[in-house]
Specification:
Methylamine Dehydrogenase, Chain H; five-stranded mixed β-sheet; 446 residues; six-stranded mixed β-sheet; nuclear androgen receptor binding; cytoplasmic vesicle; mainly beta; autophagy; 34 strands
């Protein structure tokens, strides 16, 4: 859910917006600018609260926050091969790593951190930042397209498997093995996204007319949605709602589409008792005699709801979130604004714009307000809370880029997360403390 702004809005160096991303549970928005980066809380419609801002690293083009924790990952155009991990509450750098080429994207959950280069993907254990695997035998990926399940119990990774077709490779980030390949589209991939549980994967090709949803891990097609027929578009973001009932797609056009994932059933209710039901059944039967492309179009579902933007041709990302107990559609744009729409989950239709916020202005900065206003997380996240360790305080050695101990360095044990990583709470320590690394072939490869 990250985008690099293609066209910066007018303004000085201090105000140019270079990238933007929603965090994993859509409760926070991060933006990168020529001056640094900012983090916002998405707990209110009327007010956009700035949680944190930093000007220490200029010209930021990647910024990712781990859920609502204090861990943030930043990459700058000044050092495009270096990843920096910060604890922004403490104002300290946790670690940094350098790679063999420019970093194109970063994905993270509570178990894994992925660094995607054009021709390789690095998989780190987020607890100690040890490099677990380097995927080298992958097709060139110039846009850094990849997706990581936010459910750390499976940590599925998806990335393009071909330069010429829409093949997706599904990889298990925990067992570090390839699960399957999915022939998703005829054309090259433009967007892929997992749902919150990691049980579904959505994809779109560069044509942008058809969006498909597959089951994970077996790769069976579950849904097929048609975004449009008249023109090809560039899909800039795909995102599921947290309950997986809706799928949202934004593009370089002025329309955002929201699709409803109806329950898949093997049997259809009998509808021939009425004239309309009889005609509908005859019409669907007739599609069996039509050309395949026409028949497929007849069976594809259309958008459940849409939202109209007052601009087109600009990079944007969307998300579906619950704010103040109501479903909302949020669209962040490279024009420097966040748009909030009401979404009717029952009847769909046209979403109503209710608020526009400037991302480059002087927003309200309230470091502690985020915890008070942030809505409670779904039960699935609460189940991931790590139990506190009852062991007495001790020390463990530090570590280097390959996981070995750093001579002479000792880190207090309470600074490490034990068991499943839990960073829901702002007061939790991040899982990693100190590392410096240069990732150039010092790990297992595949």
């Amino acid at each position: 859910m990250e985008a690099e702004a293609a066209d910066a809005p007018p303004g000085g160096v201090e105000s140019a917006l270079s990238c933007f991303s929603f965090n994993q549970d859509c409760t926070s928005l991060a933006i990168g600018t020529k001056a640094g980066y900012k983090l916002f809380s998405l707990s209110s419609v009327e007010q956009l609260d700035q949680v944190h801002g930093s000007n220490e690293i200029p010209d930021v083009y990647i910024v990712e926050r781990l859920f609502s924790s204090s861990l943030v990952v930043v990459v700058s155009h000044t050092k495009p091969r270096q990843m920096n991990v910060y604890h922004f509450k403490k104002g300290t750098e946790i670690c940094n790593y350098s790679y063999s080429s420019n970093i194109l994207s970063i994905r993270l959950n509570r178990q894994r951190l992925l660094v995607c280069l054009e021709e390789s993907i690095y998989i780190h254990n987020i607890k100690d930042m040890k490099l677990l695997k380097t995927l080298l035998d992958i097709p060139a990926n110039p846009t850094g397209l990849c997706a990581l399940s936010i459910n750390h119990s499976n940590s599925y990774l998806a990335y393009p498997g071909s330069l010429t077709s829409g093949e997706i490779v599904l990889y298990d980030g925990n067992s570090l093995k390839t699960v399957c390949t999915i022939a998703a589209h005829e054309g090259t991939l433009a967007a892929i996204a997992f749902n919150a549980s990691g049980s579904k994967l959505a994809s779109a090709s560069e044509k942008g007319t058809v969006i498909r949803v597959f089951s994970v891990p077996d790769g069976q097609k579950l849904y097929e949605f048609r975004r449009g027929m008249k023109r090809y578009v560039t899909i800039s973001s795909l995102v599921f709602s947290m309950d997986s009932q809706f799928l949202c797609a934004s593009s370089n056009t002025e329309t955002v589409h929201i699709f409803k994932l109806e329950q898949v059933t093997n049997s259809r209710p009998e509808e021939t008792s009425t004239w309309s039901g009889y005609m509908g059944k005859m019409f669907m039967a007739a599609t069996n005699y039509l050309p395949t492309q026409v028949s497929d179009m007849m069976h594809q579902d259309r958008a459940f709801a849409t939202a109209r933007l007052n601009f087109s041709g600009q990079r944007n990302i969307c998300t579906l979130s619950t704010i103040q107990k109501l479903p909302r559609l949020l669209v962040a744009s490279s024009n420097g604004h966040l748009y909030i729409y009401n979404l009717d989950p029952q009847d769909g239709g046209e979403c109503v714009l209710i608020k526009t916020h400037s991302l480059l202005g002087s927003g309200t900065t309230e470091e502690n307000k985020e915890n008070d206003l942030r809505p409670s997380l779904p039960q699935s996240y609460a189940a991931t809370v790590a139990r506190p360790s009852a062991s007495s305080a001790s020390t463990v050695p530090g570590y280097s880029e390959d996981g070995g101990a750093l001579r002479g360095e000792v880190i207090p044990e309470h600074e490490f997360a034990t068991g499943p990583v839990c960073l829901d709470d702002e007061n939790e320590f991040p899982p990693i403390i100190l590392c410096r690394g240069n990732q150039k072939g010092k790990t297992k490869q595949s």
